[in-house]
């Protein structure tokens, strides 16, 4: 990859650069909320998952969920970030109808995770390191529902108290493509670690997008924050629109105001929501109900030991085993695909180095093609990794040719049967019987004496004709390698 041309916004008075930072809110994987035992199940009836703590009933005190702490630490470690042995919870004070306490418990002054880095690979560009400023733990607010009554809004507190990691990047991104690559890579790592499911469509991962523009070489401009953007595509679209809006505003003599905005995906535009508050507006102070959080060396060692092989390391291992770079990137981008691939190669008696490359080709070409045709994803594949491994083994040991394997695979998709059973029941074994192949070749040569003469006269390209005729005559069951050897001998 090479450095791509820098992303610029063309204005009437010249070019402008874009500066982007992201604050990603990731719901921590846990059966219970951050400070209560209430369920975090998605899709429950409104207010079904609300404890007395979540509803801020008088006298109810928070109790910290240790699993949420563990997952935040593991995430920080996966990003190579500094883990603070001592952190502190603060109250962020503001009034909103879906915030029953009148404050949100967060971490401002002493977050649990400090600086780290995330390497991204934007399309057609060199890898780039994006700085992580911090990761802090906080509780989510509830949700207002405006479409259930003509004159009233309803409050659903199911999300109130749900544990979030806020992962704050440095303003190191300079294009929508880089921001999109950052969100994809971060989501991939969270899923590998198991600290967040990354389901942006369900609200368990969403991004606040900070955008400013400046002339090349100048200092940072005034930024706006577009809240709660819930897809990679929308993050990129919000950046494009907001950068264009700011450039047009400045060039028309206006001034960019520091504010919070919302993205309208139907129109592809951002609109003003409220003026942007600073930290002092929230009157932060240490939460008096929660002691400072102190992490032991034993706890940190356990978190470190529990980390899985991460996508970059897994991809490097695959490439070293002969998997094409593109295949390795596709397979490791999603943890479910990587796990499926690992199970696939483990189902084969061949070594990883022997089977990894053909297995990756089959997965990306044959299986992905079939799943796309059926409208399914890999978690819903009608063929299991064990069945796929058996099919690949039959190809590797010469029982099936490539074309026969495709026939068997289609039958597997339709019936759910194992490859070996299909081969036995339908007589689809590849034949390497030299005598049988010689007999068929002899008949084809007799029926095409003119082409035999042309081949022997120097028309080498006719060799493919004889291969095709032989395979056709044998119903695709002939071993292609044996067919080639026999033809070379008999054609002279």
Automatic annotation (TrEMBL):
It catalyses: L-aspartyl-tRNA(Asn) + L-glutamine + ATP + H2O = L-asparaginyl-tRNA(Asn) + L-glutamate + ADP + phosphate + 2 H(+); L-glutamyl-tRNA(Gln) + L-glutamine + ATP + H2O = L-glutaminyl-tRNA(Gln) + L-glutamate + ADP + phosphate + H(+). PROSITE patterns: GATB. InterPro entries: Asn/Gln-tRNA_amidoTrfase_suB/E (IPR017959), Asn/Gln-tRNA_Trfase_suB/E_cat (IPR006075), Asn/Gln_amidotransferase (IPR018027), Asn/Gln_tRNA_amidoTrase-B-like (IPR003789), GatB (IPR004413), GatB_Yqey_C_2 (IPR023168), Gln-tRNA_amidoTrfase_suB_CS (IPR017958), Gln_synth/guanido_kin_cat_dom (IPR014746). Keywords: ATP-binding, Ligase, Nucleotide-binding, Protein biosynthesis, Transferase. GO terms for molecular function: ATP binding; glutaminyl-tRNA synthase (glutamine-hydrolyzing) activity; transferase activity. Residues 339-491 form the Asn/Gln amidotransferase domain. It holds the Pfam family GatB_N. Its EC number is 6.3.5.-. One of its GO terms (biological process) is glutaminyl-tRNAGln biosynthesis via transamidation. It is an enzyme of class 6 (ligase). Allows the formation of correctly charged Asn-tRNA(Asn) or Gln-tRNA(Gln) through the transamidation of misacylated Asp-tRNA(Asn) or Glu-tRNA(Gln) in organisms which lack either or both of asparaginyl-tRNA or glutaminyl-tRNA synthetases. The reaction takes place in the presence of glutamine and ATP through an activated phospho-Asp-tRNA(Asn) or phospho-Glu-tRNA(Gln). Belongs to the GatB/GatE family. GatB subfamily. Heterotrimer of A, B and C subunits. This is Aspartyl/glutamyl-tRNA(Asn/Gln) amidotransferase subunit B.
């Amino acid at each position: 990859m090479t450095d791509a041309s820098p992303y610029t916004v063309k204005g009437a008075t010249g070019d402008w650069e874009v500066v982007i930072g992201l604050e990603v809110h990731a719901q921590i994987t846990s059966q219970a909320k951050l400070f209560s035992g209430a369920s975090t199940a998605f899709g429950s009836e409104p207010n079904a998952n609300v404890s007395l703590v979540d509803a801020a009933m008088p006298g109810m005190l928070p109790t910290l969920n240790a699993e949420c702490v563990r997952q935040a630490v593991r995430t920080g470690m996966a990003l190579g970030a500094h883990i603070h042995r001592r952190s502190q919870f603060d109250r962020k004070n503001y009034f909103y109808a879906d915030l029953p306490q009148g404050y949100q418990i967060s971490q401002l002054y002493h977050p649990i995770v400090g600086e780290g880095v995330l390497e991204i690979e934007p399309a057609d560009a060199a890898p780039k390191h994006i700085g992580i400023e911090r990761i802090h733990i906080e509780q989510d607010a509830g949700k207002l529902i405006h479409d259930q009554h003509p004159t009233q809004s309803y409050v659903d507190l199911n999300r109130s108290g749900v544990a979030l990691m806020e992962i704050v990047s440095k303003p190191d991104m300079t294009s929508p493509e880089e921001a999109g690559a950052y969100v994809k890579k971060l989501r991939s790592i969270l899923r590998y670690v198991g600290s967040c499911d990354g389901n942006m469509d369900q609200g368990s991962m969403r991004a606040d997008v900070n955008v400013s523009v400046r002339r090349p070489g100048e200092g940072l401009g005034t930024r706006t924050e577009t809240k709660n953007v819930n897809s990679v595509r929308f993050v990129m679209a919000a950046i494009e629109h907001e950068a264009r809006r700011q450039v047009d505003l400045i060039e028309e003599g206006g001034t960019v105001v520091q504010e919070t905005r919302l993205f309208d995906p139907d129109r592809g535009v951002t609109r003003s929501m409220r003026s942007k508050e600073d930290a002092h507006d929230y009157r932060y102070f240490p939460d008096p109900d929660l002691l400072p959080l102190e992490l032991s060396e034993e706890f940190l060692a356990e978190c470190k030991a529990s980390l899985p092989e991460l996508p970059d390391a897994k991809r490097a291992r695959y490439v070293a085993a002969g998997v094409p770079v593109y295949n390795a990137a596709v397979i490791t981008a999603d943890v479910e695909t990587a796990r499926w691939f690992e199970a696939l190669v483990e189902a084969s008696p061949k070594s990883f180095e022997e089977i990894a490359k053909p297995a990756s080709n089959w997965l990306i070409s044959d299986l992905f093609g079939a799943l796309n045709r059926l409208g399914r994803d890999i978690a819903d594949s009608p063929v299991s990794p064990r069945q796929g491994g058996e099919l690949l083994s039959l190809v590797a040991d010469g029982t099936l040719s490539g074309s026969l394997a495709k026939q068997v695979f289609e039958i597997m998709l339709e019936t759910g049967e194992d490859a070996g059973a299909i081969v036995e029941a339908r007589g689809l074994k590849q034949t390497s019987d030299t005598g049988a192949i010689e007999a068929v070749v002899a008949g084809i040569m007799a029926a095409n004496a003119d082409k035999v003469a042309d081949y022997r006269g120097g028309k080498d390209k006719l060799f493919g004709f004889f291969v095709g005729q032989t395979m056709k005559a044998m119903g695709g069951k002939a071993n292609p390698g044996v067919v080639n050897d026999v033809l070379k001998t008999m054609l002279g």
